[in-house]
Write a structure and sequence with these properties.
Blueprint: E1 11-20, E2 26-34, H1 37-53, E3 57-66, H2 80-85
Antiparallel strand pairs: 1-2, 1-3
Bound molecules: zinc ion (ZN).
The site of zinc ion has 7 residues, from loops.
């Protein structure tokens, strides 16, 4: 997903999407950040139309956040969020969806080895 964050002001937007499946299961997902609220609203429209095809619903709203920019210490090690981003998903997940497997060309059938494996670099 291409992202174009508003680097000048730091204002970002996200879509908060409340899903209901045709069987009544409900869950919430967040998509973004986006530089413009229209991009987040477009995701609400997309999911409403997509869920309607299977008899479910998707409704939601757009949130805005103001980010605070600070100079990064170039000697700082990657933070916990960076390490977490490289953790494997559940064992057997499609490796293409796993941030730790992505780009590592795992052996066929391309399944994630699971969170107990060392993160790939
Ligand atoms: Zn993995």
């Amino acid at each position: 997903m291409a992202r174009n964050i508003n680097a000048r002001t730091g204002d970002v937007h996200r879509a908060v999407i409340n899903f209901t499946s045709s069987t009544g299961q409900t869950w919430t997902e967040y998509e973004g950040p986006y530089a413009k609220p229209g991009a987040a609203r477009a995701r609400l429209t997309f999911w409403a139309n997509h869920m309607a095809k299977s008899g479910g619903t998707a409704t939601g709203y757009v949130e805005q956040a103001e980010t605070t920019w600070r100079r990064l210490d170039p000697s700082a090690a990657p933070g916990p969020s960076a390490a977490k981003a490289r953790q494997h998903l559940a064992k057997g997940t499609n490796a293409e969806d796993c941030p730790a497997c992505r780009g590592t060309n795992p052996p066929y059938p391309f399944l994630c080895p699971g969170p107990n494996e060392e993160p790939s670099r």
